[in-house]
Amino acid sequence: VDSLKKSASEDFVDLKRKVSALILQKLPTEGACTRANISKMFYVNFTERIAARYGIVVEHWPLPKFTAPGNLGSRAELLVLHQAFENDVARFRQLTNEEWEDWLKAYREGGEEAAPISYSFVVFSPSAPRRSLLKRYLIME
Question: Of 40, 47, 79, 100, which sits 20 to 30 A from 109 (CA to CA)?
Answer without folding.
Answer: 40
